[in-house]
Design goal:
Organism: Parnassius mnemosyne (clouded apollo)
Protein name: Transposase
Strand order of the largest sheet: 1-2-3
Radius of gyration: 17 Å
Strand content: 5-15%
Helix content: 40-55%
Number of domains: 2
InterPro entries: RNaseH_sf
Largest sheet: 3 strands, parallel
Shape: globular
Structural class: mainly alpha
Order of helices and strands: HEHEEHHHH
GO molecular function: nucleic acid binding
Low-confidence stretches: none
Number of helices: 6
Distance between the termini: 40 Å
Length: about 140
């Protein structure tokens, strides 16, 4: 997927440049040697991962079990799940179409709000010296 889809998709993105960072999720399969070689080639020194593949000092090792700090975990997956399945897609093609449509429909204002929330989470994490944020993030 990295070679056949991701690399060619990046080439067409105006936003992809030397300042672009790559942030992996925590799936072990995403940190295989083969995957990390491609990611490091595409984002030299700009990788946030549970396994920093090279000794490049600008890469960042992602803290384990940190869903409080990962926008897809604290926002995107739950947000999309409700919308993508609302019309009960019956085929993979329909499911993919729903995902694409719902991703495209996320507003700039929503993205701003998510990243403002991320900034608050990061600041609180720093204030707590890296401790979990359960009482802050999951208020009842």
């Amino acid at each position: 997927m990295l070679q056949k889809f991701f690399r060619s998709s990046l080439a067409g993105l105006q936003e992809y440049n030397s300042l672009t960072w790559f942030h992996q999720d925590r799936a072990t399969c995403h940190t295989s040697n083969a995957s990390m070689e491609v990611v490091q080639e595409l984002f030299p020194g700009k990788v946030i991962s549970r396994r920093v593949y090279t000794t490049t000092t600008t890469n960042i090792e992602w803290p384990p079990r940190s869903p409080d700090l990962f926008p897809p975990d604290f926002f995107l997956w739950g947000f999309l799940k409700n919308k993508v399945y609302s019309n009960k897609p019956r085929t993979i093609t329909a499911l993919k179409a729903n995902i694409r449509a719902e991703m495209a429909a996320i507003s700039t204002a929503t993205c701003r709000h998510v990243f403002e929330n991320l900034k608050s989470r990061l600041e609180e994490c720093l204030r707590r010296d890296g401790e979990h944020l359960d009482d802050v993030i999951f208020k009842k």
